[in-house]
Amino acid sequence: MTQTRYYLTRSPEPEKEKSRGGGGGTAMRVIVPLQGVVQGRGGLVLGSLIPCALFYFLQFYLKRNRDDTNDQNESNSPPQNPTPSSDQLTELPTLTRSLSRAFLSPRNPSGPVPIAARVSGIVKGADSPYYIGLRRVKEDPYDELDNPNGVIQLGLAENKLSLDLVKDWLAENASKAILGNGKELSISGIATYQPFDGSMEFKVAVAGFMSQVMEKDVSFNPSQIVLTAGANPAIEILSFCLADTGNAFLVPTPCYPGLDRDVKWRTGVEIIHVPCRSADNFNLSIAALDRSFNQAKTRGLKVRGIIISNPSNPVGSLLSRETLYSLLDFAREKNIHIVSNEILAGSTHENEEFISMAEIIEQEDIDRKRVHIVYGLSKYLSLPGFRVGVIYSFNDDVMAAAKKLTRFSAISAPSQRLLIAMLSDTRFIQTFITTNRERLQRMYVQLVAGLEKMGIKSIKSSGGFYCWADMSGLISSYSEKGEFELWDRLLNIGKLNVTPGSCCHCIERGWFRFCFATLTEKDIPVVMERIQKVLKPVN
Amino acid sequence: MRLVVPLQGVVQGRGGLIFGSLIPCALFYFLQLYLKRHRSPRNPPSPSASLQNLAEMNRTSSRSNLLSRGSIGPARISSLATSISKPNDSPYYIGLDKVSEDPYDRFGNPDGVIQLGLSENRLCFDLIEKWMLENLTDSIRGRDGDDLSISGIASYQPLDGTMELKMAMAGFMSHVIGGAVSFEPSQMVLTAGATPAIETLCFCLADHGNAFLVPTPYYPGFDRDMKWRTGVELIPVHCRSTDNFTLSISVLDQAFNQTRKRGTKIRGILLSNPANPVGNLLSREILCDLLDFAREKNIHIISDEIFAGSIYGNEEFVSIADVLDSEDFDKSRVHIVYGLSKDLSLPGFLVGVIYSLNDNVLVAARKLTRFSSISAPTQKLLVSMLSDARFIKEYMETNKKRIRNMRDLFVSGLEGLGIRCADSSAGLYCWANMSKLIPSYGEKGELELWDKLLNVAKINVTPGSACHCIEPGWFRCCFTTLDEEDIPLVMERIRKATDSRAS
């Protein structure tokens, strides 16, 4: 061994000598420093090591520089107007460098301190029409008596139809529920540190409630439940748990407008839209899914899962049993996760049967671990301010991680107490479910009839608080611009806040989401009148 | 020879330099590529043993299944989830778990583990309970039982807290922090606990790979709050017992420069004042120096003042807000975190506050509260509780008195065992020096003592190493979860455990 090694390093010498003798060597030596090394001892070793080292540093240098430019791009990414802070962000490196040089005499402070580049998009990002509309309603909300010229809210997925039932219940039971019948020591149950992922009592109550809502033989296991402060953090936590920065989720569009914020903002995860079309009633097709998957793969993106919403928001359609099975097959084939957002599960109002992923995985043992279901209680129960989200999963690692992450979004104890009492009151819940369903249906029918009278068609919706209406005949040009123009007229002339399809990433133009569960029946004629007013100049 | 050394031949020919450099470079590049490829699949198998078993089961079942070749074991989860789904390894969390399995109860479970590891205040529950019994119904239903207030708790609220609660909170904070500081409700963002408040600030101030300087010993939860999801690093700035663990600017500067040299960008300093776990306060001078330092380096300061109202010493607490007000400092780089978990002993209510004068940070933080907002009934309740000035005043005074009393009892008990505590004037804990009791001077010895206290004496304390303390043998003991009657038992248990070592 030693001999060969000796030869390896040694052997160059004689031949080298010759080549030097070949003439031109001396001149070469100056120009080509490496040559000298090669000709000396250890030629092979040094001659390889040095270029390698240089190359390594070059790579290192390039990597650094690339990161920097990325940073700068990111901070500038919302191409609106480069506001002062984005300028500071890019200037920062030079600023601090010169500062540290002048270290001991800190001259004039270097201007405002920079914030993280990753939130500068959040800070400046121009709000989409969805959020602009919500803000407008907040500033000038319609009220039949006090503010009849205010903006009518059709943009918020909130259910106010059965608020009276909830109010009555709360008035009767609230304080008793929180204090636990006035027994002593109950205070330590709400004031002290509680498990962040929700108390077991609460989980049991939630599991029972969910079975009741499904109206079927689906049983929920309380120990597979993690509770969060709303459905937004539930989705974000799953996004954190299932995908790394730079990975992607497939999302059939149209999807709900806040999904981008929940999935992408803090996690650095990407969304790949899988366009569904009106020709298929916006139903998901596995072929489209497969196509998007492959496209992502060729782009070098790792797809970690699919996020579906069932009943779908904004369309309101339900996924059939066959679709669910083929989704599961697809996920198995690609070895990816499925996040099923069933936040609207209780709000089905037609006779079509709702099938939860939970029902399917009850039978499908093997694929349980890749399915994660999100529920939200508060929206359905007309208690959005309560902020209760549910993660239901059979993947132990995801459960363990999600439980630990609930330290950042736990539900406060008094609310848990209140809801335990409310959800355990099965008689109340049953009344609520039945009444709420009836009212949803009545509102839906009226709204659709009103729209149809004006020639506006909509996709048949069987769940949720929405009507997905086709106004493509009414937009001035078939483009996002045309759609926004109509949205703007509806908001400013008609004083109606609806959500344009492009906020839901719909691939076709002219679709709008109308949320009807914040209205009363008396409001519907007003809404129709206002739409009429907006449409007149066009007709 | 040529066969053995292929490069040699190239070097001797024309273009020697080019080939002689290019070829090794290319080879090296491929080597790196190869190593990289091989490295990545090695990470995933970490999901615990059970998962690996599962992988095998799955494979066989899926093979027999429908011949779907694609499925190769369970779908991967993120590296974050993989790393945090493992069982806790920090003694701080192991101890907490142990207590929750077998909690001490004087009557129900006298042999259980006594909790001295959780900084929770149970001394004034009677006051809170009394208030609740008297006012709860009114505060939720509204004074006259009108139903408008019910729709107030049922409908969508601003995610960053209602204006009423912010106003009530501003009043409460001014009362607690004292001095001439007044807090502006519009500069506040309310979150579901101080934990998300800290995380949100971290998201807003630093990017992945950036760092914060943190004086040690520090609260063990910071590692989770600041690092887990944000990808930010914490750089310990070591304080020592000889200075009673007070921070010095020169050490800070040293840590700053060292980190800089490593190529890591520092975005701020994370302080806790009153300090957790030591319980000492930052003086006005050091706060001014810190602000100067931050300006010089152009970095942020997060000041966690969650224990501001739990002062029992005679020393005056100075908030960084106070210093900002009185002198001409750049306000946009200071962010204060507060909460009701400690001072009002309502950790179950989960209420945290970000107070900042940086508009960009406020805008971002407000939007991020969609992930951690306080539920409406709790807000409603707190508005009336915090606005009840008489109750708050009485509560704060009684609370301070009771903390001081417990602290005196506890510290003198420890002194009876020959254990000295660091000087402190705030908090729900004391920082005890047990370095004489540890079997060997080092982290190992410290953890041995901790283990013995937990498993033999059945006492859960937090070892200094969990707080990143550089000196071994220090322990944090929280005494506000105890009853006075429990103190002799605690001392007895410590004595027994440490005696048995000597004998």
UniProtKB/TrEMBL annotation, chain A:
Gene3D superfamilies reported for this sequence: Aspartate Aminotransferase, domain 1, Type I PLP-dependent aspartate aminotransferase-like (Major domain)
CDD domains for the chain: AAT_like
Biased composition (Low complexity): 72-88
InterPro entries from the UniProt entry: Aminotransferase_I/II_large, Ethylene_sulfur-biosynth, NHTrfase_class1_PyrdxlP-BS, PyrdxlP-dep_Trfase, PyrdxlP-dep_Trfase_major, PyrdxlP-dep_Trfase_small
Spans annotated as Disordered: 1-26, 68-90
GO molecular function: 1-aminocyclopropane-1-carboxylate synthase activity; aromatic-amino-acid transaminase activity; L-aspartate:2-oxoglutarate aminotransferase activity; pyridoxal phosphate binding
Pfam families according to UniProt: Aminotran_1_2
Domain Aminotransferase class I/classII large: from-to ranges: 152-531
Family: Belongs to the class-I pyridoxal-phosphate-dependent aminotransferase family.
Keywords: Aminotransferase, Membrane, Pyridoxal phosphate, Transferase, Transmembrane, Transmembrane helix
Transmembrane feature ranges: 43-62
Species name: Hibiscus syriacus
Domain of life per record: Eukaryota
Protein name (Swiss-Prot/TrEMBL): Aminotransferase ACS10
TrEMBL record, chain B:
One annotated GO molecular function: L-aspartate:2-oxoglutarate aminotransferase activity
InterPro entries (UniProt xref): Aminotransferase_I/II_large, Ethylene_sulfur-biosynth, PyrdxlP-dep_Trfase, PyrdxlP-dep_Trfase_major, PyrdxlP-dep_Trfase_small
GO annotation (BP), single: amino acid metabolic process
SUPFAM superfamilies: PLP-dependent transferases (SSF53383)
Spans traversing the lipid bilayer: 16-35
Superkingdom of origin organism: Eukaryota
Annotated Gene3D superfamilies: Aspartate Aminotransferase, domain 1 (3.90.1150.10), Type I PLP-dependent aspartate aminotransferase-like (Major domain) (3.40.640.10)
Domain Aminotransferase class I/classII large: 114-494
UniProt entry keywords in alphabetical sequence: Aminotransferase, Membrane, Pyridoxal phosphate, Transferase, Transmembrane, Transmembrane helix
PANTHER family: AMINOTRANSFERASE ACS12-RELATED, BIFUNCTIONAL ASPARTATE AMINOTRANSFERASE AND GLUTAMATE/ASPARTATE-PREPHENATE AMINOTRANSFERASE-RELATED
Name of the featured protein: Aminotransferase ACS10
Organism of origin: Hibiscus syriacus (Rose of Sharon)
Lineage of the species this protein comes from: Eukaryota, Viridiplantae, Streptophyta, Embryophyta, Tracheophyta
